[in-house]
Design brief:
By secondary structure, the protein is α/β, with parallel strands linked by helices. The protein is built from 14 helices and 14 strands. The longest helix has 19 residues. The chain is globular, with a radius of gyration of 20 Å. The structure holds magnesium ion.
């Protein structure tokens, strides 16, 4: 037991504009729409977490705000924030689903606990295996000329990992972009492909094989989330490693994925697993099965990025990097006091205590559409 009690629960709905629209196999996105959760203790501490839903992938802003305000808040008031697992288990019994709201809650509780102990979240959940993680940027502009300019600018910054979002403008467009990037950057560029479920299962193996001459590091989620047999068949049939994103949300799906050798890589995301600790459970299942993991994200501000970076610092093996690029290279602005620590093509894991990143009051007021208390 600690001497701290949660006194206030505040829910901030925010919209941060993007510099440009990003296109994916599952739709276009032009802003970061998130729900920030603020927990305040009777001792004057403040813990923060972020829910970043994408309606075609996980859930909605409205649903996650209602989960926090209507269901979590009445239970949380008066509770000890360091009892993280006890509180998260209780919340599971109050409300099913709403993974992103639960990720925000777990993050805010760990942020408070880290401040109380003087440790970063990565240290609270096991330790810091690394201080920096190679950053991957997602190439997703329907105007490829604009993408080439952006890639050149990021290349100058030291970014070497680029993930092409595919499956929204045809197979020929995808092959043309791969060919162009290999021609311009040679072997130094680390290319990845993400279909976001955009390929028809009946023709997916042939289309993925067409990519192989361009030597992608992996191909992510070519087919629909529920088409697991097709995904496993693609994994068996092609040489390029296949990554499951939409098909593996939580430990139960990771176990199924490991049993059927669904893919060679799982993308870890706190918005899918409902938090850092359950993402580490996914990572443990993957490790036992010889499956690689990767640091994925949704459309997030640097609050959720920091939580993702804390998670990926605590994963024992990490060879494929992470994609916490939104606040540096996608959003027109950010919500945090300091720029998210990206330098030389690397994400530097915030040192804490707790999350290590906090919203700026003025920016929060500027981008907030609604406050629920
Ligand atoms: Mg993906």
């Amino acid at each position: 037991m600690s001497e701290h009690k949660i006194e206030a629960v505040r829910v901030h709905l925010v919209t941060v504009p993007a510099r440009t629209v990003h296109s994916h196999g599952s739709g276009d996105v032009g802003a970061i729409c998130s729900v920030l959760l603020e927990l305040v203790t009777d001792t004057g501490l403040t813990g923060w977490g972020e829910a970043s839903p994408w309606p075609v992938f996980t859930g909605t802003v409205e649903g996650n705000a209602a989960a926090m305000h209507g269901y979590f808040a009445p239970y949380l008031r008066g509770r000890d924030p360091v009892q993280v697992d006890v509180l998260m288990n209780a919340v599971e019994k109050i409300l099913v689903g709403h993974h992103e709201a639960k990720a925000a809650l777990e993050c805010a509780l760990l942020d408070l606990t880290g401040q109380i102990c003087g440790l970063s979240i990565a240290e609270l959940v096991g330790g810091r295996h690394r201080e920096a993680i190679p950053l991957s940027f997602s190439v997703a502009n329907p105007d490829f000329g604009k993408d080439l300019d952006d890639i050149a600018a990021m290349w100058a910054d030291g970014v070497r990992l680029f993930k092409l979002k595919t499956g929204f403008a045809g197979h020929g467009f995808d092959l043309m972009r791969l060919e162009k990037l290999r021609a311009v950057y040679g072997d130094e560029i680390d290319l990845r492909i993400d279909y976001n479920q955009g390929l028809p299962a009946f023709d997916a193996i042939r289309q993925v094989r067409d990519l192989e001459p361009f030597r992608p590091t992996f191909v992510e989620q070519p087919v629909k989330r529920h088409e697991r047999e097709a995904l496993a068949a693609i994994t068996r049939s092609v040489d390029v490693p296949i990554m499951a994103d939409e098909s593996v949300f939580d430990p139960r799906e990771a176990l199924l994925g490991a049993q059927m050798r669904l893919s060679d890589v799982f993308s870890l995301k706190i918005m899918k697993s409902a938090g850092i600790r359950r993402a580490l459970e996914v990572a443990a299942i993957a490790r036992a099965a010889g499956i690689e993991v990767y640091g994925g994200c949704m459309f997030e501000t640097s609050i959720a990025h920091a939580a993702g970076a804390q998670l990926m610092a605590a994963v024992p093996d990490l060879r494929l990097g992470c994609e916490f690029y939104m606040s540096t290279y996608y959003a027109a602005d950010d919500i945090a006091q300091e720029p998210f620590p990206v330098e030389g093509g690397m994400v530097h894991v915030p040192n804490g205590p707790g999350l290590g990143v906090r919203p700026d009051a003025e920016k929060l007021a500027r981008y907030r559409s609604e406050l629920l208390t």
